[in-house]
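pinging the channel bc i need a second pair of eyes. not urgent but kinda urgent?? the chain im working w is below, pasted from the shared doc
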Amino acid sequence: MLFPFLFLALSLASGILLSSFLSFSLLTWILFLIASLACAWLFFIFRKERHSFLVILLSTFLLGASLYSLSDRNFEENSLQRLKLSNYADFYGTLYKSPSRGPDRDVLFIKVKKVFYENKEEKIRGNLRITVPHSSESPSSLNLFIHDEIKVSARLLSSRGFRNFKASSLNAYLKSQNIHNRAFSKSALLVERLESGKKYSPLHLVSVIRQKLQQKIENYFSSETSALSPQGAVLEALLLGERSRMDPSITQSLQKAGIYHLFAISGAHIAIISFFLFSLLKLSRVPTRLSYLFVIFFLVFYAILVEGRPSVMRATIMAVAFLLGKLIWRNVNLINTISISAFILLVFNPFSLFNVGFQLTFAATFSIILFFPRIIKYFPRLPFRISEILVLSLTAQLGVLPFIASSFNRVTFSSLILNYAALPMVGLIMAGGYIFLPLSFVSSFLTQFLAKGMESFINLLISCSHLFDKFSFMSYRIPTPHLFTIIGYFLFLLLLLLPSKIKRQKLVLIVLFLVFFTVLISYPFPSLSKNLKLTFIDVGQGESILVE
């Protein structure tokens, strides 16, 4: 079998998906799993390999269902998740991630150990996300690191009640991030460090290094109104994965242009880093196999530096699996490699399946692998790899279009063209950034010179996102597509991969695919006025309507 791990990954994902809809107990799933494994063992003993593999697929399906049921039970029964408080309480715990900095707030991630409320102390375990706004008394970011012991006075935020549509997506996101509750503290003065983290703890050291790098970016990319300029915020997002300080107007223009995905450290960034490292090692005449080991080591360190953000972990696991395959077997099957990565991620966190980032990453990757070689042969060979980049964007878009339409209610065609300009610029900015960071510790003059050049490239990248602003048909909002439309889209798209066995089979499949594609991207209710815009805002407490 060419792709055994693909079927295993699909079976695991199917089990997770089914378990999310059914209310079977964990014990039920485990009993089914044991019975299935016993059957697989019997078929193996009697040398029924095909039957044995089919039952192993069933066992993997039941494993996925069991893992989801176990994870969901543990999450829902967590003491912090079940805690309901209306007033402020004191939360004691340890930082398990560096504070996420924003233009007007910090976000703390605490592994809670105990809570003091209503004149009593209770031992409670769980992960808590706390928002702390900046104020006139404390305008700067909190100087805290991983493994610091802290106390925070905060009020828990309710995730229940009357909310806008798709409010449950917040709960799904919190589950995928293993965050059991959220809280708000009205001032940084209510945050107290009780004890510094272990000085030589690897994660503590990484947290210190990360914040020093952020400080270096602030030193050379500051503005009159804030510690970090809009260009510096873009650089910080590209190098360290911290997007919370990006200017909202820039974020909106990048999302509308369809190139915002380039600012979430993922496969494209890992590919750029790997290419940059392989080029340097090749110039240094380092042996190929030793280069693989060095790149693997650096990618793992980089994933730790950006503190294991899901998109980085997905891309790093895929890259490391591919490089290990090249190191051990030389010839690597990409579909099996990507499937192994998905399998590992789902085993460790079944909730990842419902994360939009997970869906987009693997949909784009599989779509490129399956359709790129079939489409590129119909394109002429153009200079500067224009054909390859256009087909790469097209095939990635084929895989992610339904997910973007469903999750973000937007269809973007401008990205097919803008990616050609944006990808090289992002590569140049990142390459310059990785020279900028170590250079900033050595020479202030050279760093200042490099920073000016990078600032010009960042401004050019931002300008690219506005190229198609006057062409509304290149990016527009749509209603959430029906599930039937999405299923039909993917069904006929995948059927196009099958070899033709009847006359005009391909033509019929192409027509049916285009029908579902048209329904997916159609906006059935055209606006009667171009000068009126209504935005319904979920403020968590009541209705809020913005009329523009």
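so The mean pLDDT is 85. and Residues 209 and 305 are 8 Å apart (CA to CA). — does that match what u expected or am i reading it wrong
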